[in-house]
Structure formats: structure tokens, C-alpha cells
């Protein structure tokens, strides 16, 4: 299911991995599988963003990114979604407000790689996000230390669940976040773009 808003039962746990996916690669695939397993999630949705509000460069057209994402990520519990384009949202706090209203009783968890935690204090209404939705952070090469020392991690140090309690995250009272050290894949969209070849996504 790539379009629209699929049925979710109240009580289900859904990880949201927002990203430009410009293009999607094996790093995204790896952390999504790891998130399903370690955070005990029923579903993961890839929220393919119309455009990151903090990035200057314009991503490839949304439909092209969606198609590449569908090709590389095929899993019965992982959905490729253009929900943000449909909702007309760009900021994560706004997207979360819409989804929580649309799906009362569903437990959403925001997922991010360690590099995003390092930047998280620059996001619009980031404290609101932290205070309303549990956050699952997945290790990424070179970013583990900067993430742990980041303003968000420091300010919310009291709200951190240990990695060995990661399965409790989706049902934890916010603020709650959990960093998990999972096997890492050293892939990035920017490296693939620098190669000048989107088909590199299939070779990871
Ligand atoms: N190799 C990876 N390991 C862990 N997390 C990753 C990895 N690649 C991407 N992520 C995470 O996936 C989410 C979406 O990433 P995004 O689509 O921006 O890809 P990216 O490779 O980080 O792109 P770019 O290189 O253009 O910044 C972010 O939370 C990011 O931290
Ligand atoms: O809401 C914000 O201020 C905000 C700032 C930066 C990034 N984000 C979100 O973070 C996710 C990862 O973005 P990106 O471009 O690094 O893949 C994506 O869903 C963005 O919309 C959100």
C-alpha cells in the first residue's frame, strides 16, 4: 500500500521513518528491519518527504523517489508512503499532529538515524515532538558520538531508555527515546548522488 492512509487498529505500533530518500538505499532498509525487530513494531512507514525544510537542494521528483523506494524496500510490514505530500505537511511536528488525529489509539514512534538526533534541536517544535512521541534512534557510521552528545540527547538524558529495553519504547510514556546499536550500513543518498548514478541504489 503506497497511497492513502491504510487501516490501522487502535493499539498497533507504527514506526515512522521520515526522509528524503533521494535515493533510498540499503542503510534505510537495514534500519527499518532493525526497528521492526528491536522496537517491537507492527509496521514501519517510510514517509517520503516532499522536501526537508533544513536542506537547500531540491530533491528528485517525489514519484521518482517513491518508485526507487518501492524497488529496494519490499517487506509485508513496511509501507512506502507519500502521506506528507497528501497532508500538505513539511514539518515533522505538523505531520505527527495529523497522523495522531487520524489514528487515535495507534502508538506512533518516530525513527531516525543517529545523524538526525545530532541535528534534532534545530527542527521546528522539536521539544513538542519529544514530549508527544517516543523516538527510536538507530546507529549510523560516524554519527554515534555526535548524537549522544547532541543538545537533544543532553536535555532529555533523563528520558533515555537503555538499548536493552528497546522493546518497551513504543508503549513508553513520552518523553522517551532509545538509541540502539545495530549492525551499520555505510550508505548515504548524498554519496550515491555524488556518484551521479541513481541506479547505484540497486548495487548496495
Ligand atoms: N546508513 C544509514 N544508517 C542509519 N541511518 C540512516 C542511514 N541512512 C539514512 N539513515 C536515516 O534514514 C532517515 C532518512 O535519511 P535520508 O533519506 O536523509 O538519507 P541520507 O542517506 O541521510 O541522505 P543524505 O545523504 O542526502 O543526507 C534519516 O533518519 C537518516 O538518519
Ligand atoms: O520538522 C522539521 O523541522 C524537520 C527538519 C529537518 C528534517 N525533518 C524531517 O526529518 C526526516 C529526515 O530528513 P532528511 O531530509 O534528512 O531525510 C524527514 O522526514 C524530514 O522532514 C524535519
From TrEMBL:
Belongs to the NadD family. GO terms for biological process: NAD+ biosynthetic process. It is an enzyme of class 2 (transferase). Its EC number is 2.7.7.18. Residues 16-194 form the Cytidyltransferase-like domain. One of its GO terms (molecular function) is nicotinate-nucleotide adenylyltransferase activity. This is Probable nicotinate-nucleotide adenylyltransferase. Gene3D superfamilies: HUPs. Catalyzes the reversible adenylation of nicotinate mononucleotide (NaMN) to nicotinic acid adenine dinucleotide (NaAD). Keywords: ATP-binding, NAD, Nucleotide-binding, Nucleotidyltransferase, Pyridine nucleotide biosynthesis, Transferase. CDD domains: NMNAT. It catalyses: nicotinate beta-D-ribonucleotide + ATP + H(+) = deamido-NAD(+) + diphosphate. PANTHER family: NICOTINATE-NUCLEOTIDE ADENYLYLTRANSFERASE-RELATED (PTHR39321), PHOSPHOPANTETHEINE ADENYLYLTRANSFERASE (PTHR39321:SF3). Pathway: Cofactor biosynthesis; NAD(+) biosynthesis; deamido-NAD(+) from nicotinate D-ribonucleotide: step 1/1. NCBIfam families: cyt_tran_rel, nicotinate (nicotinamide) nucleotide adenylyltransferase, PRK00071.2-2, PRK00071.2-4. The keyword rRNA-binding does not apply. InterPro entries: Cyt_trans-like, NadD/NMNAT, Rossmann-like_a/b/a_fold. Transmembrane segments: none annotated. SUPFAM superfamilies: Nucleotidylyl transferase. The keyword ATP-binding applies.
